[in-house]
Specification:
Blueprint (H helix, E strand, L loop, with lengths): L2 H18 L7 H16 L2 H6 L2 H5 L2 H4 L2 H19 L8 H16 L9 H29 L1 H11 L14 H25 L8 E2 L2 E2 H8 L24 H7 L17 H6 L26 H22 L10
Antiparallel strand pairs: 1-2
Helix pairs in contact: 1-6, 7-10, 8-9, 8-10, 9-14
Length: about 325
């Protein structure tokens, strides 16, 4: 085995480890949390118990062996291989943004207003600020991905999933993933920079297993069920604050009445504030995917990776040649 091959295999393993580690949705504890919530749903729903056993409900083989789900797996492996071959750093480094912002604020305003508070309050303030700002940023990028034709051309990869499983989270075009990582890094960098100045450098984040604690707890509490067959509603009142799995499943629905709703990741408050909230209501049967006339790619990994880029280039060329944006293709 050549040195280059060994380096490639090591980088590929690192990419997969990041997906399966504590910061990823496919971490064992996160999957266990989702399974426990799904088991509770089965136990307290007589109609579900009549249709299948506990194991069959929590791990439906027909969904995980569906062609769409198997394509999710192949795309996940392909993305890890691409990440190993062509590592491209995020445009924004959270650390760089934080340092530059903190230094700039210190030069302009000198001492931070919260310099005398205890370290515990500083850690709490930064942890909450980073969680809120990152969640708001992800809401904004997600909403833009549905409203801007160029971004929608990439985001179609995610919405073309015909069944939802925890693997569907990783059914994302690499360019869209890069945009989202860059936006998240910018959000965390802004929160860290302002907090470092305000608390006079005494900041850290709550962590569990080496990753940000609030996000870890949210994921372990069943966030994987967002992409699943398990209908979990939080009730009308709470769904104005937190995004339930049922709300995100409505976001993936092919029903036009559900389009352009529920863009939030953890907090439904952003949807409520900006007029895109849809509460889940009673349990219902949903269909997922994109209509053939909307979908810009085929059913292979190569098509998922290449055709959206060609669609983006076609739109960019259309803008440059006509001076106006081409008509969007039925954004959701």
């Amino acid at each position: 085995m050549t040195e280059w091959t060994q380096q490639l295999l090591n980088a590929f393993g690192a990419e997969l480890a990041a997906v399966l580690g504590p910061s990823g949705r496919l971490f064992g504890l996160h999957l266990l949390g989702a399974a426990l919530v799904a088991g509770a749903v089965w136990a307290f729903t007589p109609s579900l118990r009549q249709r299948s056993g506990l194991l069959g409900f929590v791990l439906p083989v027909h969904l995980f062996l569906h062609p769409s789900s198997l394509l999710d797996v192949r795309l996940l492996v392909a993305r890890a291989l691409l990440g190993a071959l062509f590592f491209v750093p995020a445009v924004w480094s959270a650390q760089l943004v934080a340092v530059k912002l903190a230094l700039g604020l210190s030069a302009l305003l000198d001492r931070g207003p919260l310099a005398d508070v205890s370290r515990g309050w500083a850690v709490a303030g930064f942890s909450v600020a980073a969680f809120l700002l990152r969640d708001l940023t992800r809401y904004g990028v997600h909403r833009a991905a549905h409203r801007l034709p160029v971004l929608w051309a990439l985001h179609q990869v995610h919405h073309s999933a015909e069944v939802l499983t925890p693997l569907t989270l990783h059914r994302t075009h690499p360019l869209e993933a890069l945009i989202m990582r860059g936006a998240s890094a910018l959000a965390v960098g802004l929160a860290a920079g302002v907090s470092s100045w305000a608390f006079h450098g005494r900041i850290a984040a709550w962590e569990i297993a080496g990753v940000e604690a609030l996000g870890f707890v949210w994921t372990a509490a069943g966030a994987n069920l967002r992409h699943s067959h398990v209908w979990v509603s939080y009730g009308r009142a709470l769904e104005h604050l937190l995004v339930s799995p049922a709300q995100h499943q409505l976001h993936h629905s092919v029903d036009p009445r559900h389009h352009d709703r529920n863009f939030g990741e953890a907090l439904a408050f952003w949807d409520w504030a900006f007029g895109t909230l849809l509460v889940s209501g009673p349990r219902r049967r949903l269909e997922f995917g994109l209509a053939p006339g909307v979908r810009n790619h085929g059913h292979s990994v190569a098509s998922l990776l290449l055709d959206p880029v060609l669609a983006v280039l076609g739109r960019v060329r259309g803008v440059s040649s006509t001076g106006r944006t081409p008509s969007p293709v039925a954004p959701r």
